[in-house]
Structure formats: C-alpha cells, structure tokens
Design goal:
Layout: H1 2-10, H2 16-38, H3 45-48, E1 54-58, H4 72-79, E2 84-98, E3 108-115, E4 131-135, E5 148-151, E6 156-164, E7 173-177, H5 179-189, E8 202-207, H6 213-223, E9 228-232, H7 233-238, E10 262-268, H8 273-281, E11 288-297, E12 300-304, H9 320-323, E13 328-331, H10 341-352, E14 357-361, E15 393-394, E16 400-402, H11 404-408, H12 418-427, E17 434-435, E18 445-452, E19 455-465, E20 468-473, H13 479-484, H14 491-505, E21 511-517, E22 524-530, E23 542-549, E24 554-561, E25 568-573, E26 579-589, E27 592-603, H15 617-626, H16 640-645, H17 663-682
Parallel strand pairs: 3-7, 4-6, 10-11, 10-13, 13-14, 14-20
Antiparallel strand pairs: 1-8, 1-9, 2-3, 2-5, 2-8, 4-7, 5-6, 11-12, 15-17, 16-18, 18-19, 19-20, 21-22, 22-25, 23-24, 23-26, 24-25, 26-27
Helix pairs in contact: 1-17, 2-17
Length: 686
C-alpha cells in the first residue's frame, strides 16, 4: 500500500487516464442502477384481462404487442389448428388524449385496444363505432360514462360506455373498443403505421379444454411456418418490459370437484308449462337429479326421475329418512291442506335441521291462494303471504327486473359484466303471470321485482332459516323466456340451472370437514361435523385427524368436541412447511370407524406481501400504538428526526445496498485496485 501511494505521488500523471476511465465506468454503473430502480413495472392487467390460453405475436416482434403484425392469412392458419376453439384479434395504440373538463394542453396518456369476443375476461365489444369501455383508473381523471375522449393529434372522438376493472397497460389507463374503431384511430393518428382491414397486432387464442397450451403453441407456430411466436398467458406477462415482481402474476388454489349427484324433490299440483320447461332446462345436467310428483287427479301422482320403483311410492314423504335424502324441495301449485300437519312440520325440519333449501313457486293453488301463509311453514317463508280469501294470482304478463341485490347475486348472472348482465335481463320477454306477496320479512332479500301496473312487486325473495334457505318465486311463467326467444338462446336454461345449483350447493352433507387460515405462518383451524342419516348430531364418537403434506409427511391431531354445538369437533395445526396439506377426519365409535370426512388446503408462507402492495394504514397505526410508537402520514414527516433523537430503542438495523449506492467507497476501491495493478505491471510482477 505504501509503495502504491509513493508511486502515485511521484508520477500522478501516469494514472490520469486510468482514473478518468474508471470514474466514467463508476458513473455509468451508478446511472444504470438508478435507472433500473426508477423504472416502474408495466402493468399486466391488459394481458390478464384476455383470459386466453395463448397470445400469438409475429415472430419478428420480439414478443412485443407494439411491434407485432398479424396478417389475415396467418389468422386463418391459426384458426385451422387442431385444438383451437376460438380466435380473436387484438390491436393497440398509445396516444395522448383530451378529456372533457380539462384544458386543451392537459393530455392524459391512454392505450386504446381493439378486441373481439375471444377475450373472455372483457365484456362484449361495443357494437357502435366510436364507443369503448374505459379502465376504472380513468375515473380519477374525471371520466364518466357518456363522456367523449378525444384521442391523439387528430382528436378522434371515443364515447365511454362504462368501466372495466384491472386492465391497465404499461402503467396507463386503457380504452377497449371494437377492431374497427381501433383501426380508424390508428390510421387517423399514425399515418406512418397504418393497418389494413383484417390486420391486427396479436391473436387471442382459446384452447380446447382437453388441449395442452404449450403443445398447442408449438403446433400453431409450425402451421404458420414460423411466422408467429405463441406464448401462454403467463409467458406473455413475463415478456412485458419492466416486470419487476413476477411472483404476484399467479396464485395457486386447490379446487375440490366432488363426484356427487344432488337430488331435488319437486311436487306439483297440476300439469302446466312451468313444470315441463323446468325439467327440460336441467335435463342435461348430470349433477342434478329431479324426482317429481305430479298430481294428475285427487290422491294420484305421476312420478318422474325416480331411482327405483319404491321411491315416492306412497306419495309425499312422511318420514325424515325419506325426505332428508334430498338436498332441495320445490313446491308448486299445491294447497297446504294437501299435506298433513306432520308433513308440513317435516318440511320445516328439512330446512331448519337438515339444512335443505325450499322453493315455493306461484300458481292458482300455490302460495297465498293455497293457504301456505297459515300453515306450519309460515315462519320459514321470506314473506308474509296474504290470506286465502284474497285471490293473489294474476295471469298478466309482466317484465322481471333486477334489484340491486339481484344484480350482485351470482344466481342471476347471464354475463360477467354488470352492465351486460342488466341489459340481458332487460331483453328478456315478460313472464306469463305473477302472484302478489305480502310484506318482505326483515332478514329476507329481494332479488327480482315484477314491474306491474301497480308498481314494483317482489318476484323472487329468499331468506336463511335455521341451517337452510327458503326461496319464493312469485311467477309460474318463466317458460315464456324459452318460447319467445330464439332456440339458441339459453337464458331460460341458465336461470334454472344456476338457481337449482345454488339451492343444492348450500345443503350440507351428513359429514363435513373445513380448513381455514394457515396464511403467513399462522395456524390452520379445522372444523369437522358429523351427523347421522336423519341429520341428528353424532355425539357418541371420537374424532382423530390425519394431516398429510404433499411431500408425504403425515401428522395425527386429536380433535375435541365443541361444547357449544353438538356433533362438531375442532382442532388446530401449525403447518411446519408450505405446500398442499390433505386432511382426513375419522369418526370412531368403540374403536371402529363409522364416518370419514376429507378436505385440503394450500398453505403458502410469505406470499401475501407480493399481492398487497398498498399501504395498510390501519395495521400500521395499531402496530405503532401497541409498541409505543407513532404513525406518520407521508405529508407529516417533519417531526420524525426530533422523535428519533430521543428514542430509547436499542434496536438497530443493518441495511445492505449495492456498492454503486456508496460512490465514494466504490471509487476508492476501484482506485486502489487499479493502482495495485499498475504498480505490478511497472515492476513486472504480472
């Protein structure tokens, strides 16, 4: 070291060039480091919104949407590849835009996309030219539905028809229009990069359910002679420039698909269209079985959908074992007096104890006309039915209208987008009839209204009751939807399938096991419930649980009875590692297993921070209060240094930084290393 310093003092000029070069290198490294730290990640929302099996770019685009061009012939080749179920085109243009209410020089950067129906994560493209869906981040710029945004130097007008969520691209808000609108705006504002009819920037490919996306990508690129580069959605996201955190692009969740057929009992008092078309709507659903009792004359029933000749042989069930084997019960135009008080009480127990779902359908002899408001089921129903002295059934056509609660319900979904779903309901034909209901009970929810000449009346109402649910559908005329609409329109089938599936999905099994929690190092709470065939709690059993990790590791946990609820057993597991855990609860009586319940849970420790990038003010305030500290907002940091000066905390933190963030040390090390090298060269030691 002394020799190096003496040589530097004796002949400093010899080291000038090396010093300048090393200084420039150091400055360049620091500049690059700052640039990398300052770049924001391009948002992946636009790609994720496609919900596509594959994104196809041109092979010369370097997997960039802006550089890519797909010709019509390549689109035809892709569409003809085996395993491709649907192909849509995609195009984009990034331009400055003028928004109503802002100054003429206040430009807002937006990306306008043109797309087709193959982009299943987005609503249907607006049918009229010059209209678009807007990303909801543009609300912060004052954009509202009906506003006109003028795009680019040509000030091309685009009317906003509504909003979509999480579709940003390259950190900018987006507009989603038809391909025709995109081509017009592209050509008006970028005459140097005009696109011809049929030309797009990329293709959105939906693969057949049985096909493997990576394998399909290879076949597509072979079919186009190597003119395309096909990526899975995950690969397309990773290819975006500036993606700094790829860990939050995917989430894993185990999905259990039980091989279980659900049973529904439907009793109808008279042959009618609603009975026929409901059965037809769910006839192809292999997971639903509807056993029906159709009264054709007094005390004579026609049975359909039964599993064996003995089922429902004596008419409506008279015991819990007979009725509780079903998951849901539908009662049509049937008088309450046609069932005995014991059978009515049995239906009440079916809902409250067994946890089944009950649906009452309007009819000349149903609901209020049938005396159900004065029956043992009056408390179960979500409405107060009028007395039998009032004829509440009207054969008048009325439209069905969604309520705000119905708009949010998954049962009444015809489209994923709220606006498209509401429009679909407005397009439905009128129902054939309606029945006046009484007041809605406090715990009930009205999902549909009938738009009658007397105003809006409840048409579909539900409420929880005990362990189950009770529904009332105040019309027997939804069959008009099927008869009055094109044959290919499936709204009638979708309505009944979703309603009946929701009814049976909430019905519990005799045995169940639930696992919850286990995130971020926490414990997994386990709850097992065991009931007999009559759904009475099993309290003379012991329960042990076997927890198995995907690696093969297994643990045994003793589950203890819940003192507050009979038949329920609880346990807790602190998982020693991440991964999928499989749980099996075995109920034993006198050392012999009598029932088994199973479930699984994916435990991921340390993953939550990658999906929660926003500041959690509430948690920070609670943490500060619990530790004797203070919470500061970004705009109130002036007093932080005074607070730290008098801090009694003995906690220190070591911070590691790249060496270019400490330039003085970095330059010194480079300088010394270069000096040593030059001296060794002078002395011929190297």
């Amino acid at each position: 070291m002394n020799l190096a310093l003496k040589e530097l003092r004796r002949r400093p000029g010899r080291f000038g060039v090396a010093t300048v070069i090393l200084t420039l290198i150091a400055v360049l490294l620091m500049f690059l480091g700052g640039l990398l730290d300052g770049l924001t990640a391009g948002n992946t929302g636009a790609i994720r919104a496609q919900q596509a099996g594959l994104i196809v770019y041109s092979s010369t685009s370097q997997d960039s949407l802006v550089r890519s061009r797909i010709e019509p012939e390549q689109r035809r080749q892709v569409a003809g590849v085996e395993g491709v179920s649907e192909v849509g085109e995609l195009g984009s243009v990034q331009l400055g835009s003028r928004i109503e209410g802002k100054g003429p020089r206040d430009l807002v950067p937006v990306v306008l996309f043109g797309y087709q129906d193959a982009s299943s994560g987005l609503p249907t493209p607006p049918g009229q030219p010059g209209r678009a869906w807007a990303d909801d981040t543009l609300k912060a710029e004052g954009v509202e539905p009906g506003d006109t945004i003028r795009i680019g130097p040509a000030r091309s007008p685009v009317e906003v028809v509504g909003f979509v969520n999480d579709t940003r691209y390259a950190g900018q808000g987006t507009l989603w229009a038809s391909l025709g609108t995109w081509r017009r705006i592209q050509n008006e504002n970028r005459p140097d990069a005009r696109v011809a009819p049929g030309v797009s920037q990329a293709l959105v490919v939906q693969a057949a359910e049985t096909d493997d996306p990576p394998g399909l990508a290879e076949r597509i690129d072979e079919a186009t002679g190597g003119l395309t580069s096909s990526l899975t959605e995950g690969e397309a996201i990773d290819a975006l420039p500036g993606e700094r955190n790829a860990l939050n692009n995917t989430q894993l969740r185990p999905v259990e698909v039980p091989e279980l057929r659900r049973s529904i009992l439907y009793i109808e008092g008279e042959p009618r269209w609603e009975y026929k078309f409901m059965r037809r709507a769910v006839a192809d659903d292999e997971d639903l079985v509807i056993a029906t009792l159709l009264r054709v004359s007094p005390n004579k029933f026609y049975r359909q959908g039964i599993d064996n000749p003995e089922e429902l042989e004596g008419g409506f069930p008279t015991t819990a074992d007979e009725l509780f084997r079903y998951d849901a019960l539908i009662i049509g135009s049937v008088e309450a007096a046609s069932l005995t008080p014991a059978q009515q009480q049995l239906i009440r127990d079916f809902v409250s104890e067994r946890g089944g779902s009950l649906l009452m359908i309007a009819g000349p002899n149903g609901l209020g006309n049938g005396g159900w408001g004065q029956s043992a089921l009056a408390d179960v129903l979500p409405v107060l039915l009028p007395p039998t002295t009032t004829d509440s059934f009207h054969r008048l056509k009325v439209p069905a209208r969604l309520t705000p609660q119905g708009q949010a319900s998954q049962v009444l979904r015809f489209a994923a987008d709220n606006t498209a779903n509401r429009d679909a309901w407005l397009e439905l034909p009128e129902v054939a009839d309606y029945q006046v209901l009484g007041n809605v009970k406090p715990a009930a929810i009205t999902l549909l209204n009938a738009d009658t000449q007397d105003g809006l009346l409840p048409l579909m109402v539900l409420q929880p009751y005990g362990r189950g649910h009770a529904y009332v559908l105040a019309t027997g005329g939804t069959w008009r939807w099927q008869m009055s609409m094109p044959l290919e329109d499936l709204k009638h089938e979708i309505f009944w399938r979703q309603l009946l599936r929701a009814m049976v999905a909430s019905a519990p099994e005799t045995v169940s096991l639930a696992a919850a929690g286990g995130q971020e190092g926490g414990s997994i709470a386990l709850r097992a419930e065991f009931r007999d065939d009559a759904f009475a709690p099993m309290d003379d059993i012991g329960v042990r649980l076997v927890a198995s990790h995907e690696s093969g590791e297994a643990l045994t946990i003793a589950m203890l009875p819940d003192t507050a609820e009979a038949g329920v057993f609880a346990g807790e597991l602190l998982p020693p590692g991440s991964g999928t855990w499989y749980f099996e609860a075995v109920a034993e009586r006198n050392g012999e297993p009598v029932a088994v319940a199973r479930t699984s849970l994916l435990h991921e420790s340390g993953a939550a921070e990658h999906f929660k990038i926003r500041r959690d003010t509430g948690t920070l305030e609670r943490l500060a209060a619990a530790t004797g500290g203070r919470y500061f907002e970004p705009g109130t940091l002036d007093g932080v240094h005074d607070l730290l000066r008098y801090s009694s905390s003995g906690i220190t933190e070591t911070e590691y930084r790249p060496i270019w963030n400490a330039p003085a040390v970095f330059l010194l090390l480079l300088f010394l290393k270069a000096g040593e090298w030059l001296l060794r060269r002078r002395w011929s030691t190297i």
